[in-house]
Write a structure and sequence with these properties.
alpha+beta; 26% strand; 34% helix; five-stranded antiparallel β-sheet; Enolase-like, domain 1; single chain; 14 strands; 12 helices
Length: 262
């Protein structure tokens, strides 16, 4: 397989290179390069964002944590700003994959790929974050649209993610031991706008658990979460667990997340 390779000099340069061809934007490459090796992707061109310093870094601004799209999982986990403002987000980032994945993989790449068992989508949806691109800002509730599908248009590039700072947040995942992806992962959040609960690994795409949100809005407690019954309709069944097994795990992990959040 042959393809052209472009080291982007700017976001505008990357967007221009991606236009009008079967090109793929490459961030950390932890998903895309594996897909290419397996023959699951065959792009005509790769546009590399790794040289764009303006897409890296973490800052606290106007009550929000702003994370650049090319910031690695390890950098998010180690960020003092994230550890102070949203410790559950730091914990999530620090337990993604293995050391190589955490030091090469990026938040923007993870979100654009939208693997159904990825961890970051749960944090983004659970915290009600906003995904900023070179063209617009997309609320989390409108970003994740299906299996490996997002609201991104062809050539659109994620530049940063804005996370509101919650009152409380917690994250728990039951991981597949080899890949460390989530068999089920649950992110819970309580803020002045209400309670949000996001689930990854259980379905074809990250989703909010409305029954858990209602229960936790009435009583923010592990006991309240664990009493909720989740339907297994539409959930995944594979060699790691049945839909019923995943449905049973969701309230258990939500309860543990609430306990961890305090």
């Amino acid at each position: 397989m042959s393809f052209t390779y472009t080291q982007a000099a700017s976001v505008a340069d990357a967007a221009k290179a991606a236009a009008g061809s079967d090109a793929k934007i490459i961030a950390g490459g932890q998903s895309l390069l594996g897909a290419i090796k397996l023959g699951l992707a065959a792009p005509e061109a790769l546009i590399d964002l790794s040289g764009l310093a303006e897409l890296r870094g973490v800052r606290l601004e106007a009550g929000k944590i702003i994370v650049g799209a090319m910031t690695t999982h390890a950098e998010v986990a180690a960020s003092p700003e994230v550890q102070r403002a949203i410790p559950a987000l730091a914990a999530l980032a620090g337990n993604i994959g293995d050391r190589q994945v955490r030091n090469r993989g990026t938040i923007g790449g993870s979100l654009a790929n939208n693997d159904p068992a990825a961890c970051y989508p749960a944090a983004v949806l659970g915290l009600g974050a906003t995904i900023n691109t070179d063209q617009r800002s997309i609320p989390a509730d409108a970003f994740f649209t299906g299996l490996y599908e997002t609201a991104l248009q062809a050539g659109e590039i994620i530049t940063s993610v804005s996370f509101p700072v919650p009152d409380k947040a917690g994250w728990q995942k039951f991981k597949q031991p080899a890949s460390r992806f989530s068999i089920v992962g649950v992110f819970v959040c309580k803020s002045d706008t209400g309670v949000r609960v996001a689930v990854t690994g259980a379905g074809p795409c990250v989703f909010r658990a409305a029954k858990l949100e209602t229960a936790l809005a009435q009583s923010w407690s592990a006991a309240a979460a664990e009493k909720v019954s989740i339907s297994d309709e539409g959930l995944n069944t594979d060699l790691h667990g049945s839909a019923a097994y995943r449905a049973a795990l969701i309230p258990v992990l939500a309860g543990r997340g609430v306990a961890a959040a305090g």
